[in-house]
Amino acid sequence: MEAFNETYNETFKVTLSSNEKVVCLEEIISRLKKILYVYDKSQEPNSNYNYKVFCGGVALYVSSSNTLFDGELVNIVININSILTNRFDKGQIKKLVFESINFANYLLKKYQD
């Protein structure tokens, strides 16, 4: 069974076309923008919002997409992981979110051309 898995892993790879990467990046940008909204809502009294839970979902989506982008999204993964694992104020979170959005926009332009 182990030999089968090694062979299978070497021969099977999911790839995305440039158009599919554009769609994926647009979704990532949309989710990144929502982080600050969810953060603000989570700070309200008696809020049902939890920005860490939302960021966890974004992290899962970006991390899964990173494989399909051959590691190009690692900077975004690192930024989201930083938000998840640290106690940042809104200014620090905003900085990391906008760094991630700017990087995703850079990649978006690359794949749109």
Number of strands: 0
Unreliable spans are none
Instruction: Quote the beta fraction.
Output: under 5%
Query: Which value, in Å, is the CA radius of gyration?
Result: 17 Å
Order of helices and strands: HHHHH
Mean pLDDT, to the nearest integer, reads 91
Count of helices? 5
| Percent helix range | over 70%
Provide tags for this entry.
mainly alpha; 113 residues; 0% strand
Structure description:
This protein is mainly alpha-helical and 113 residues long. The chain has one domain (29-112). The chain is 78% helix and 0% strand. The protein contains 5 helices and no strands. The chain has helices at 2-11, 18-42, 51-68, 74-85, 90-112. Helix 2 (18-42) packs antiparallel against helix 3 (51-68), helix 3 (51-68) packs antiparallel against helix 4 and helix 4 runs antiparallel to helix 5. The radius of gyration is 17 Å and the shape is elongated.
Walk me through the topology.
Layout: H1 2-11, H2 18-42, H3 51-68, H4 74-85, H5 90-112
Helix pairs in contact: 2-3, 2-5, 3-4, 4-5
Compact description:
By secondary structure, the protein is mainly α. The chain has helices at about 1-10, 20-40, 50-70, 75-85, 90-110. The protein has five helices and no strands.
